[in-house]
Design brief:
By secondary structure, this protein is mostly helical. It has four helices and no strands.
């Protein structure tokens, strides 16, 4: 990794995965606010946004693999995805965030705890 600080090495993948997931949320779900536009337009726009998403995701995983295992990177990505999506669904899609969502997300975070925990 081109960064020597251990803190930067640990935090950079998290920051890049977060940015990646912001773009991916818009690519996958943003078009739902514009259902009157043709599906082909939604697909092309989503692909364009997803290209930007990959520009963050690929370096996040490349740099992150120097610090984290692939299982840790994937788990981190899933937790970040749910966090970003929670904000996206409330702020952009104007959907309620319910106790059911919170409990479901908390169970996934509990699973992530065991991925990052030392072997049992």
């Amino acid at each position: 990794m081109p960064f020597s600080s251990p803190a930067v090495q640990a935090l950079l993948p998290i920051a890049l995965l977060t940015l990646s997931n912001v773009f991916m949320s818009f690519a996958w779900y943003g078009h739902l606010k514009y259902k009157s536009s043709p599906l082909a337009v939604a697909i092309l726009a989503s692909w364009a946004i997803a290209l930007v998403e990959y520009c963050f995701a690929v370096p996040a995983n490349r740099f992150g693999s120097d610090v984290y295992t692939t299982a840790e990177l994937k788990t981190m990505q899933e937790v970040i995805t749910l966090t970003v999506f929670g904000f996206f669904s409330v702020l952009v899609m104007k959907e309620p965030f319910t106790l059911n969502h919170l409990v479901g997300f908390a169970l996934i975070v509990a699973g992530a705890f065991f991925v990052f925990r030392a072997p049992l």
